[in-house]
Amino acid sequence: MNFPTRRALVLSPAVMLTIALGGCSSETRVEASVKPESKRKAAPDFALKDVNGNTAKLSDYRGKVVLLNFWATWCGPCKIEIPWFVDFEQNYKDRGFAVLGVAMDDEGWEAVKPYLQTRKVNYRVVIGNDSIAQLYGGVDSLPTTFVIDRDGRIASTHVGLAGRRDYESEIKQLLEGNQRAAR
Question: Does the global pTM surpass 0.85?
């Protein structure tokens, strides 16, 4: 007699987790895998302030593979991805890779700075705005992540939560592809 009640209790958190992992909007779209070079478009350049008040421009990263992540402190799926990005920064920075976070919190550094300290984020973060979101096609869902090749072109786009292996595969493909081309 209690079995249906227990089953409902077990399924309820699972259903809630599934909903939460879908992204911070109703739309979840993933363009998996790296686009062929001929289909990549230039990533729009921008200049935004980092936590130290220094200006960060995307063009400063030319020559590196960049994971450009639009996120917010209140976004559940973003909280899942950030530790992966910390690992990627640590593991691949010496191979010409960088993570650049664009925080979309309305409260700005007041919300973001303590979050970065608590999470021990080791990559550069800037505060975004509606203008930068529009440059990137109207970032309507968080997280939205662009993997950018060494030439500053968008190689892949992820809207919503993507898998760690997907990101890592794309990063490696772009890092190794340029090594092969250099030989």
Answer: no
